[in-house]
Design brief:
3 domains; 20 helices; elongated
């Protein structure tokens, strides 16, 4: 209303001014040069044309598109960035409240500046700084907490975004001599089957040209990020189901349609130097991959089924391997006793348990306690899972007629100090191993048995004479693997007295047990909602004393040998596991499910 009154006053002033001038001079006097004549009732011309809005051609258009569109674009980017920072910081546990507050307050300040400052250029510059500075600071912090492949706004990340955007438009390009598929997808590069001559790059290039290569990379990359040890591709009628084995338990993943699934299986068969035309007979192969400047080995095996070809892939990640006995979770006294046995000049040390109990890992850790530079250490494995420095590793080839027994017999001529045999499978390997232990060699091996005492009689069943076994054996280590509770989300509870009594524990000395959360409010970012992360060993060490050697020669019953072992201080596997339960490392339910 005031504006309208002012305009009315201006108009009235003009009118009054025009009336005061009066009409033209009577008598037909000429007007001054350059001044046009006008009627008495006309307003004088306005020297500045008036229009409503910001566009002279469209009256009433009040928006300046050249300024409004950039501000609106920054607004949507700011909204998207704040949502991403909130979600990403929660997943990485990076002070979500701090970063949310910073991006919100600074961003709102930038929009106030662009709307309030009289000069648009300065206001827009303030808005850009208010958006970019908090985002840059957060990206800098979060990139320091994630692996190189997961970092954002890096040259590689921007390169991948650009290549993917162009690929959606149908423009496929290669950068730095690499194909499009080597840039698109996860930062993992398949190298084909590894031989003595190097990596099979020809098969790698063949696989890159296959349909579904990016999907195969994403499958393996996802399995590695989830800490899976095995990937199972199982054919169904209309799809190829995918399951990961994580910490010894199978978990389903997103399946593939049958066409894409068959292509992915063929890609892994090409990488593993297997025949893609053969889908009924079982095949096996191996290949490698490079991820974040480290090499990962894979073992693939196929088997024909009623619905198609099933494939299982074992992931052998050297970075996740255990290097020392102290990392296995055993008691310090047990660890010292094992090291003392291993440093004896001769004898046989066995690790027993079912498949997947971590027996090979224990033996590798045991070898790391020895000085490989002053001792000649030779291993015979099927296949070689982890490479060790300054250790001669032999991989047997059953197709070529090479067996554990034959390789063990020949390597004894190589003057070894320590011999590791991957597994005792038959009577010949067992006898040669015992003979090697009696002739000045330390022999390490694995055996499938439920516990240490049954492993002793398993060797006798294989045909090893008791007198030979009694003089060769030094100790037997029984073991199982149990999942470790997640430190971030495990919940304490008071166990029932009946449960403690059944476990042989005193209720007065037990404050609490721990277990995974039953109804979590949110998914734990550390364990992904599983409640467990990683595994730890439960062990039972049976040391062969002189008295037990005599009992083995005399073929004494199992109960007598067990009683003598208990007198020597041996704890059963269940008793060792209860120590982990009391410490909150694992749950009682997990112990009961895996240790009988």
């Amino acid at each position: 209303m005031p504006i309208l009154l002012i305009m009315l006053a201006v108009l009235l002033t003009d009118v009054c001014g025009a009336a005061a001038q009066g009409p033209a001079a009577p008598g037909g006097g000429s007007a001054p040069v350059g001044v046009s004549l006008r009627a008495v009732d006309e307003f004088p011309p306005n020297p500045v044309p008036f229009f409503r809005g910001n566009d002279r051609n469209r009256a009433g258009f009040y928006f300046n598109l050249a300024r409004f569109v950039p501000v609106l674009g920054l607004f949507f980017l700011w909204v998207y960035s704040t949502q991403w920072i909130d979600h990403d910081s929660r997943g990485l546990q990076l002070s979500t409240e701090l970063w949310n507050s910073l991006t919100l307050v600074v961003g709102v300040g930038g929009f106030v500046a662009v709307l309030g400052l009289p000069h648009f250029g300065l206001g827009f510059l303030a808005l850009a700084v208010a958006y970019g500075v908090p985002l840059g600071l957060y990206v800098r912090e979060r990139n320091g907490h994630v692996p190189e492949s997961a970092r954002v706004l890096t040259p590689r990340h921007l390169q991948k975004v650009a290549v993917r955007a162009l690929a959606k438009l149908g423009i496929n390009i290669g950068l730095g001599g690499e194909g499009r598929d080597s840039v698109i997808g996860p930062p993992i590069r398949f190298l084909g089957k590894s031989t003595s001559k190097g990596d099979d790059l020809v098969r790698s290039r063949q696989a890159e040209k296959s349909k579904g290569f990016v999907a195969a990379k994403e499958l393996i990359y996802d399995a590695i990020l989830r800490r899976a040890t095995d990937v199972h591709l199982e054919p169904k009628t209309e799809e190829l189901s995918v399951r990961y084995r994580i910490d010894g338990v199978m978990y389903p993943a997103e399946p593939f349609d049958r066409t894409m699934g068959d292509s992915i299986v063929n890609i892994f068969k090409v990488l593993g130097a297997m025949d893609i035309t053969e889908k009924r007979k079982p095949q096996d192969g191996s290949f490698r991959a490079e991820l974040e400047n480290r090499m990962i080995d894979f073992r693939a095996a196929t088997q024909g089924t009623r619905d198609g070809e099933k494939m299982s892939i074992r992931i052998l990640d050297q970075s996740n391997s255990v290097n020392r006995l102290a990392q296995l979770g055993m008691r310090k006294q047990m660890q010292d006793k094992i090291v003392e046995i291993l440093k004896q000049p001769h004898g046989m040390f066995l690790s027993c348990g079912p498949t997947g109990a971590g027996k090979s890992t224990t033996l590798y850790s045991a070898l790391s306690e020895l000085d490989s530079y002053q001792q000649n250490i030779i291993t015979v494995e099927d296949p070689v899972e982890y490479k060790m420095k300054n250790v001669t590793q032999i991989e047997i080839n059953t197709k070529a007629g090479q067996t554990f027994a034959g390789s063990l017999r020949s390597l004894l001529r190589q003057d070894p100090d320590v011999v590791l045999v991957g597994e005792i499978r038959d009577d010949e390997t067992a006898r040669i191993g015992c003979q090697a232990a009696n002739t000045g060699h330390m022999v390490l091996s694995t055996l499938h048995a439920n516990d240490t005492i049954s492993a002793l009689y398993r060797l006798i069943d294989l045909g090893v004479e008791p007198f030979l076994l009694s003089s060769a054996l030094s100790a037997i280590l029984g073991q199982r693997l149990v999942r470790k509770l997640c430190d971030e989300c495990k919940v304490a509870y008071k166990p029932k007295p009946e449960l403690l009594k059944q476990a042989g524990l005193t209720p007065d000395k037990i404050e609490a047990f721990y277990r995974p959360p039953t109804n979590p409010e949110s998914v734990c970012p550390k364990c992904g909602g599983l409640g467990y992360r990683g595994r730890v060993g439960v062990f039972e060490l049976f040391v062969i004393s002189e008295r037990i050697r005599d009992m083995i020669r005399e073929n004494r019953p199992v109960t007598d040998i067990k009683a003598e072992a208990r007198k020597g201080g041996m704890l059963y596997m269940r008793e060792e596991g209860l120590r982990l339960v009391v410490k909150g490392i694992t749950s009682y339910e997990e112990l009961i499910a895996n240790v009988k």
